[in-house]
Amino acid sequence: MRHIEFVVDAWVLGIVADEGGARGLQGLSLLNGILRYHRLAMDQGGRIFQEYSHQIEHERLLRDWWGLMASRAGKLTHKYSRLTNLQSTTLRNDLRFDPDDIPYVEVASVTPSGYLVSEESDYTHEICEYLEDQLGISVLTLDDAVSLALAP
Asked: Which of 39, 62, 95, 115 is 20 to 30 A (C-alpha) from 27?
């Protein structure tokens, strides 16, 4: 099995913390797959962790998962990346992309896989096409990410 570096939007943690049921279990499956077999890519500046912390502090399972991720060598990778001015302007102004999601895009743009997991409404078809064409980022649904994370 190859190790994949996933970029996981805080939306996934929110599904686990707030939604429960089948979707919550699906989110837990992804997080468990990353814990067991893969890596989680974060930004060097801590902006992604700041978003994660809002979910982690309210849900015991997420706190446990985060503690295990942080305690195991090589599970968390920290990336430094910034979009160019043109890329940032295009996303924010032309495509109306949520500025809070820029750190996920920046990190995904420098991971080997380019996988970013989110189903937030910000990731419209037009934005996903731009991310794929201009930055090599594949925005994965939770279903697709779980399949990749748990595949032998």
From this structure: 95
